[in-house]
Amino acid sequence: MKWERIPLGPLQTNCYVLSSKEKECIVFDPGSEGAKLNALIQSRGLKPLAVLLTHAHFDHIGAVDEVRERWNIPVYVHKKEKDWLASPELNGSHYFQAGPIHAGPADEYIETGKPLTIGPFTLRVSHTPGHSPGSVSFYHEETRAVFSGDVLFKEGIGRTDLPGGDHQLLLKSIHDHLLELPEDTLVLSGHGPETTIQDEMDHNPFLNGF
């Protein structure tokens, strides 16, 4: 199995496509530019099985409906953010100048604390709130990667000044659910380059001394 990072939209939000040798795939956080993303998926000869959302901020959901409708696949989100897809006030687009962004309701609600299996993919799902109330992180053991959304970045952490943000809770989420992963785990963040758990333990100034 392999993953591909596809930065999309004005904020260059990282969408990820995790694919198997049989060309089945899962799409994480299709934030914008749905036509471009669908064309890329088609050019790779992939068959999407689901859209998984690390959280429902506007820059992570802008192409949800285009991808869902093109491939006729379900969208998963944590139940704490089930109303965010349709609400510019909740998903944050109301506060920015890009205009209101919304999507249809999710098809499935993510259950944390147990494996999520979709086709050939099995992911360990952890509830990692702090950046937003329903933020989740998806750990894929086979590729030794965690899709962390806006929880943890290379030498940074998610912002907590938007509605529902909580700085101390975010640090606790990182400590309890991400730093306990194997040190060579790749951290695939919602923005910017990948990093590893080891590198963040050693160099992330927000985590020193926590």
Brief description of this entry?
The protein has six helices and 14 strands. The protein is an alpha/beta fold.
Descriptors:
6 helices; alpha/beta; globular; 210 residues; hydrolase; Metallo-B-lactamas; 30% strand; 6-stranded mixed sheet; Metallo-beta-lactamase, Chain A; MBL_Glyoxalase_II; 14 strands
Characterization of the model:
The protein is α/β, with parallel strands linked by helices and 210 residues long. It has a single domain, classed as Metallo-beta-lactamase, Chain A, CATH 3.60.15.10. It has helices at residues 34-43, 58-61, 64-71, 88-91, 167-178, 197-203; strands at residues 2-8, 13-19, 24-28, 47-52, 75-78, 108-110, 115-118, 121-127, 136-140, 145-149, 152-153, 156-157, 186-189, 195-196. The strands form three sheets. It has a six-stranded mixed sheet, covered by helices on one side. It has a six-stranded mixed sheet with strand order 7-8-9-10-13-14. Strands 11-12 form a two-stranded antiparallel sheet. Helix 1 packs parallel to helix 3.
